[in-house]
Amino acid sequence: MRTIGVLGGMSWESTQSYYQALNQGVNQALGGFHSAKIVMVSVDFAEIEALQKQGDWQTAGELLANASTSIEKAGAECLLLATNTMHNVAPAIEAALRIPFLHIADATGEQCQKDGVTRVGLLGTRFTMEQDFYKARLQERFGIDVVIPNEEERIVVHQVIFDELCHGRIHNASRQRYLEIIESLHQQGAQAVILGCTEIALLVEQQHTKVPLYDTTALHASKAVNWALSN
């Protein structure tokens, strides 16, 4: 078994979901007392969130690249960046590493492609929904068209993530609003909806809607488990 590196803390609420998914995935595959070999660094999200607000992606990239190299030095053989939004600085991280970087959009795109999904809705922070680093990768690598919510809906999705989910607050009213937005994306032709923020799966699960959902945290962790257990 190879060692998985995890760069988390963005937020720690979803990073704990990664830790659980990685260990459960390995145990399901190997049984007994097996668990994942993990090297993790968890950053202070307040620093990252401030840089996001300032639009200072270069400094954020440098900070996360430095954290990533420390994970590599500690013995990790691949790296997971346990957040969708900060994949905006994935190039800076990849440039600093000698080990494989497992991109969250690739894990999601591969599953969509496998399922024959060619048009998806995307929920996430406003950075993920509005900027091209995520949408363009899905389009260029997997031929997937991406639909995003309207401006008012994007504000709601973003605010719920930062004001509630990152603090572990789960509210039924917010879940209902998300489900309405998911249905709206479906009405616009989305065959499925990507939960493109690692916290959203804390609020919305497949049991809540008939629209197929892609939980990026689960898909990313599964890709890492398969990688760690492959020869």
Automatic annotation (TrEMBL):
Under the heading SUPFAM superfamilies, the entry gives: Aspartate/glutamate racemase
Which controlled-vocabulary keywords does the entry list?
Isomerase
Membrane-spanning regions, if any?
none
Q: Is Isomerase included in the keywords of this UniProt record?
A: yes
One GO molecular-function annotation for this sequence? amino-acid racemase activity
* Pfam families, sorted: Asp_Glu_race
Q: Which family does it belong to?
A: Belongs to the aspartate/glutamate racemases family.
Identification of the protein by name: Aspartate/glutamate racemase family protein
Q: Which organism is it from?
A: Vreelandella andesensis
